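Summary for the funding panel

The consortium committed to producing paired sequence-structure records for every protein in the target list. Below we show the first two records in order, beginning with the earlier of the two.
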Amino acid sequence: MDSKNIVFIAQSLDGYIAGKKGELDWLHSIPNPEKDDLGFTQLMQDVDAIVMGRLTFETVCGFGGEWPYSKPVFVLSKTLQEVPSRFKSKVSLLQGNPSEVLAKVHARKFFRLYIDGGTTIQSFLKEDLIDELRITTIPILLGGGSSLFGDLVSVVDFVHIESKVFLGQLVQSHYKRKR
């Protein structure tokens, strides 16, 4: 089975995924009265499971409301010993570098993965394990915070597939890894 690792994330114009104090309120700075999912439903159709870092998991848990994922979630953590009881049937904890994590997830028969969380995305990029980027740019400058890409050890080439405009202002660009 062909495997695929997809990043689906929003960033500011200056390339940040969270503000200087970790704030995310700017993600909702453009009104969305129709509750457009900005391509999330399509992403969920394209993946079998989700791999995210602990901080991203804790952030999602803090949103309250319904659990947003219908697919299995694998949380990468060196410190978290167990997931809250209400997520036990939905979330598994994993440790290891990206290659080890992929081997464990693939052994469970999940091959098309949504990779989420800044540190997790950066570590997968450093090992050249990202196949697609779907990045939504929000027209706001944060002036600092958590960078989407951080430092890379070498150039990683992608090919632009398409760009879509959502809500008249958000530009979502889709790229595939040039191999």
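The next record, for a separate protein in the list, is shown here:
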Amino acid sequence: MYSKLFLCGLVAFFLGVGCKSKHHQTRMEWPFVLSDATHNDLLQKAGKWLGVPYQYGGVSRAGIDCSGLVLALTESNRLPRSSRDMHKACVILSEADVRTGDLVFFSIGGKQVNHVGVVLQAPWFIHASSSSGVVINRWSEPYYAKWFTGFGRIPK
């Protein structure tokens, strides 16, 4: 019962606030199909981080950066701290093989990976944006598509 209430609250929050990214601002319908326990668990964790402000090197709800958010959501002890090193540690995937919990990487403004997010459901990902804090976007949005580097799966 509590998980249903939480998900209803998360839906209401998302529909009421929309996406605040300065790169792409729009109201969106809830894009996720709650398909399995792993997906539901990740959505619940993700909902608790939405709106947390960005802080370089941050690892708490007071402020968090993109790789810190990945570590918090995945609870992986197999990933290094930086997005660039995470990319090197992951198994590279094609878009057709991407699933919930995989990572999406970007090289914003440069040639090296410097941003990472967690796939919720293709093409939606959650990440800590330096301009907007923790938000949900699509990797197909023009801003993110421009800097897209690839997908990765956390090694087991």
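Regarding this second record: Confidence is low (pLDDT under 50) at residues 1-28. DSSP finds five helices and eight strands in the chain.
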